[in-house]
Each structure stands twice: as structure tokens, then as C-alpha cells.
Amino acid sequence: MAQKEAVQNSTSQTKEQREAQFKKQLEEEHKLISKKMKDVKYVLVVMSGKGGVGKTTVAVNLATSFALNALRIGVLDADIHGPNTPKMLGIKNYVPSVGESGIIPALGPLNMKVMSMAFLLPDPDTPVIWRGPLKMGAIKQFITDVNWGELDYLIVDLPPGTGDEPLSILQLIPNITGVIIVTTPQEVALLDVRKSITMVKEMHVPVLGIIENMSGYVCPKCGHVEKIFGEGGGMKAANDMGVPFLGSIPIDPSITIDGDKGLPFVVQSSKSKAAEAFREITDKIRKKIEPDYKG
Fold first, then answer.
1. Which terminus has fewer CB within 10 Å in the chain: N or C?
2. pLDDT, tens digit, for every residue of 83-107?
3. Domain that residue 195 falls in
4. Residue 58 falls inside a structural domain
């Protein structure tokens, strides 16, 4: 009996020691990252509960909307397995170099600074077959070794779900300004949104709100809006989970066409209802974050 208690005590001490070691390591990493990102005013993390909801499209066009307001913008593509941000910004052929202050990010449209795993792959068809520790190491390097310089906003585009990459970002970056959750109206997507919101809250990171993408198809001829994937799901999820609803973005074929060409939709199709929706969401986010912003 005494031997069993001794083993239990030993196991308990080992767990406590591991937790203390992890906490100490995280504190040291926070100090390093805070120093490296001292000139970045706000960090916005864009995530989704599942794939296929247009999260990267939202992240890229939100970043561009901010940049159109003469703001200094950085985009960190933290999707290790599916790094599509460079393609959508027309900078997929960039090869990073190293300067005195670290890795030099690519310059995208409107002078946005961009870093992505896509820049490090020898070929667009090369898969990244990595386990958790390697992925977390790469994400940490993107944060600590990239020379982001002075930015008003750093937009972090996460892969879908609540796995290694989202966990790493939420743990590593201190003082994240807020997380934006992207969903579509149908119930299956909303179920996963709830998981994402719960994860973010458990990590004690602010949730800025939900964006409902693909909220309806606008007929280019008559203007009629057809709710292909349902209606009001994003707002209902926001109300149920006690987080803000930031807005809805309708389906527009130009979003796909412009993205495939590497041209930001909010610039190329600036008069569309979807581009207007992005501008309204950007304005709403700035009012929540920037103390002196009046709109």
C-alpha cells in the first residue's frame, strides 16, 4: 500500500514538474515574441471550425480592406498543410531571404507583408507531411524569425479545426487582440463553430465575433438574393454563444475568379455587395479595437 502511494506521489510530482517547466518555457517564449512583435499594434486571428467555409478568402480580403484604409498590414498564413494565401494575393513565386533582422516577408498588394509555408516548398504540389512538433516549430519560427517591422494589424490565417496550429498560435502569441470565426449558414458548419468558440474562450483569448460567409447568392441580373445554404445561422450561433455577429458576406462568383487570378476581390470588384460587406465588417472591427477610430 505504501509503495502504491509512493508511486502515485512520484507521478503527481512529475506532472507538476512538467506543468511548471511548460509554464516557464511559455513565459520565456512570450518575452521573446513580445520583443519581436513590439511594433505590431493589433493581432487578429481568423479561424473556422471546419474547412470549406472560405476562411482564407475572408482573411485575405479583410486584410486588403484594412490596407485600403492606409493601414500597415501583415498576413501570416499559418495553414501549414494548405497554404493558399500567396496564391490569392498573386505572390506565390516569392522566395524568402534573410536580412539582419530576420526573414524578409513577401510584399503583396498594397504593400502587405506576407509569410507562408508556400514560399518554402520546392514545388506547389509538394505536400507537408509533418507531425505536431514540426508544425509548431515552423509556426514559432514564422512569429519569432520573420521581420514584421511596424504594422497596424497582423492578420493570422489559421487552418480549420481546433488542432495543433490553432493551439500553437493561441498559446504562443501574447495579447492577441481577438479571434474572428468564419462560418457558413448551414447547421453542420455551425456545430463546429461552437467548438472553436469554446476553445478560444478556454484559452482566455477575446472573440471579436462571427462572420457568416456564403450567406446568399445575389443574382447579377435582378439582384434577388437566394439563400442557398440557409439563413441566419451565423447570427443565431453568435447569440447562443454570447459573442458579437460581425456581418454576412454573400456569394459572388467574382470572389472565386479574382482569387484564382491572385487579385484581391475587394479591389477588383469594389462596387459589389460582397465588397461592401467586407468594408462594413472592417469598419465594425476597427470601431471595436481602435480607441480613436470614429469611422
1. N
2. 999 999 999 989 999 988 899 999 9
3. 35-289
4. yes
β strands within the chain, DSSP E: 40-48, 73-77, 97-99, 102-104, 106-107, 113-116, 151-157, 178-183, 207-218, 225-226, 245-251
Sign of CA dihedral 92, 95, 96, 99: negative
Alpha-carbon gap, residue 65 to 59, rounded angstroms: 10
Distance, in Å, from the CA atom of 162 to the CA atom of 168, rounded to the nearest integer, reads 10
Is 171 a domain residue?
A: yes
**DSSP-derived secondary structure for 184-196:** -SSHHHHHHHHHH
Whether the CB-CB separation of 248 and 280 falls below 8 Å is answered with: no
CB 63 within 8 A of CB 155: yes
Bridge-partner residues for 181, per DSSP? 47, 210
Report pTM. 0.89
Domain CATH code at residue 82: 3.40.50.300
- Per-residue pLDDT of 60-82, as tens digits, reads 999 999 999 999 999 999 999 98
Q: Are 168 and 57 in contact (CB under 8 A)?
A: no
Q: Is residue 252 part of a domain?
A: yes
Q: What b/e readout covers 79-94, taking b as 16+ CB neighbours within 10 angstroms?
A: bbeebbbbbbbebbeb
In a domain, 19, yes or no: no
